[in-house]
Amino acid sequence: MFKAKIVSFFILFFVTSANAAIWIEPYLGVSLSGQYKLDSSGTTRDYDNFPVFFGGRLGGAYTMFQFGLDYMKSAGVELENDTNKYKISELGLFVGVKLPLLVRGYVEYVISSEFSDTGATYDEGSGFKAGIGFTGFPFVIINLEIRQVSYDKFNGSNLDMENKSTSLTVSLPFEL
After folding, report:
1. Whose CA, among 2, 80, 149, 168, lies 20 to 30 Å from 129?
2. Domain range holding 119?
């Protein structure tokens, strides 16, 4: 009898709190640290600045879960000992969970990425992002995320490059 009451409580709790919505989350961020590594030569260069980026997530939300597509774009990435300014664009699939402790976590598989300047393009990039966010402010989430993307092509030729960064973002999630 006691087990039946507990099961009934959980079923009632999840059924009454279940709601599906469209998830829209624009964000603005800054890379706190970053590193570029060319695998063929072992050359490693750190970011020489704190590049700003913007993006958005679009998908669905169900109870405490979010899922969908993420698009990010950055310009003005400077590497040490390099005069070029690079641009990054990424498209990924994310899934997240919002916990009742004013915290949310998310992971993302980057399905397509490009790292380029006017004469050089690293593409066919893929990798991951993982983040944790503080949801204690009304309408705003502050996120700390790590990112690691590997690129397989340089100007159409096979050449491996890896790009890692740690970022701080501010996002405004909407559930419609």
Report:
1. 80
2. 19-175
